[in-house]
Design goal:
The structure is a homodimer.
Chain A (H helix, E strand, L loop, with lengths): L2 H20 L8 H11 L6 H12 L4 H22 L9 E2 L2 E2 L1 H4 L2 H20 L7 H15 L4 H11 L6 H25 L5 H28 L2 H4 L5 H4 L5 H24 L8 H12 L3
Antiparallel strand pairs in A: 1-2
Helix pairs in contact in A: 1-4, 2-6, 3-4, 3-9, 3-14, 4-6, 4-9, 7-9, 8-9, 9-10, 10-13, 10-14, 13-14
């Protein structure tokens, strides 16, 4: 295993523990809700957003004991969005991370409440203990996550996505959707991780640019994988976008050009980190990982 | 109109403006989501939670220009919970505040996202500008709201409520459900309003006790109204609890004893305020209002 792969595994194991500690035990009432929340969050996922938070924290000299909580908050927002997206009213998907989705394993009402409660828990975590150099900075982290999750962030991106089914979006419109749908939360991961330390304004600006490139690259690669990888590898239903007549980078650009675009975004991400030197090594590796991943 | 009624109207009008200012205009993308968010929140509702926040703010010498934002945050959590509760997977209700529910007027996917985005907006508001004497206190307000909304608060209460349909709950179990389902957010309204000022620990403890009494009284009265008032007066479908075979204070105690219990809780609420003197006058009036209301 490469040194980078070992680092990833270490972060993922740490996140599993931190998330498990924050999630109420299934023995506490309401038991079934807590059981379903744990089912939705634990035991799976690449934890890309936490990895980005940890790597950004390294650039800003952040204590990993603090970053892990900011990372957990972001991951819970991501997890809640998956639970709600999979519901029949949205994507109506039965498989996620190789397991039945929450509404299939439990029921729709529980899935609705799981998502709602996971979102609350994310803000609970961000406010529960000191994570930044001062409380004002930490309040700003709450604001950043709330805006990344809300109607002008992730939830808004979902709405644009829903409205786009069967419609001929152009590349600008597709990018607008993804900047909201996945980009906002990926940006929040990077910036929240950094704000657990003492980043300069210039560092935050560089990370912001990096995050935008990575967010788009992540989505372009997702589209390529959805078009090409088998369901068993993805752990979720493959080929859904085409089946739903959803516009994707692949449908607009073709696979070859989409792959090229991902490489260009990777190069842009590296360029954004040029002035940050050695502490940004993990962020560079993550840019490569996001573009080269096969699942 | 009584002086108290005029104060209520003033607060309600203020809330309408504040909420309208915080909600993104329907002209901004994603337009349909923003339109539906405004539909869900504006133009209706008693605004009981904001009224409690304003009244509690008076006890703590809070600036109303600050309290209004804390009140808006709590009201948005309440509004999101109504949107999700009304969905087919939950209560499946078609009428709310005399209008078609969000999933009926728009669609289920939009209702899901409206609720999600309203919750995010609540935390956005709580973190967007100074509301308390210092940032650490304000972070504590975020924590309070997150816990009140989450799986050990409101969302947990919903889960207990769902699990109780058709089951013979006893009075202790019913109270446990309501302390979560409505009590937690009413408590948050009162404490957040106060924390916009400079409350002493003793004041916060008194307000906490007051809020618990009011929260239960509110629910007991709700059950009485649901059993007795016509749909046209309520602005929502009446008689639903009995139709759904849901345990209520009325089904467990009968109407007469439920009314008596509400009066006892009103007396307890007044007693909790005994040491707070004249600044608690509004809170006393609100206790009376909550118990005497007919809608």
């Amino acid at each position: 295993m490469s040194e980078f792969a070992a680092w990833m595994q270490g972060c993922q194991a740490r996140m599993e523990n931190v998330l498990s500690d924050w999630l109420p035990p299934a023995s506490i009432a309401p038991q079934r809700l807590h059981e379903a929340m744990r089912y939705a969050v634990l035991g799976g996922g690449k934890r890309v957003r936490p990895l980005l938070a940890f790597a950004a924290g390294e650039v800003a000299g952040a204590d990993v004991e603090r970053v892990q909580h900011a990372a957990a908050a972001v991951e819970l927002i991501h997890a809640y969005s998956l639970v709600h997206d999979d519901m029949p009213a949205m994507d109506d998907d039965a498989l996620r991370r190789g397991k039945p989705t929450v509404h299939v394993e439990f029921d729709e009402a529980t899935a609705l409440l799981v998502g709602d409660a996971l979102q609350s828990l994310a803000f609970d975590i961000l406010a529960a203990q000191p994570l930044a150099r001062d409380a004002a900075t930490q309040l700003n982290m709450v604001l950043l996550l709330a805006q990344a999750a809300g109607s002008r962030g992730m939830a808004g991106g979902q709405a644009i996505d829903l409205a786009s089914v069967g419609k001929p979006l152009d590349l600008t419109e597709l990018e607008f959707m993804h900047i909201h749908k996945t980009g906002a939360l990926i940006r929040a991961s990077v910036l929240l991780g950094a704000q657990c330390g003492t980043p300069s304004e210039a560092t935050l600006a560089a990370l912001d640019h990096y995050a935008k490139c990575i967010g788009l690259a992540f989505q372009v690669v997702d589209d390529v994988l959805d078009a090409e990888a088998p369901t068993a590898t993805l752990g979720k239903t493959a080929g859904k976008d085409a089946a739903n007549n959803k516009p994707t980078y692949v449908s607009l650009l073709g696979v070859a050009r989409a792959r090229e675009l991902a490489q260009e975004l990777r190069a842009d991400a590296h360029a954004a980190l040029a002035d940050l030197g050695a502490p940004a090594a993990r962020l560079r590796q993550l840019a490569d990982f996001v573009v080269e991943r096969t699942f």
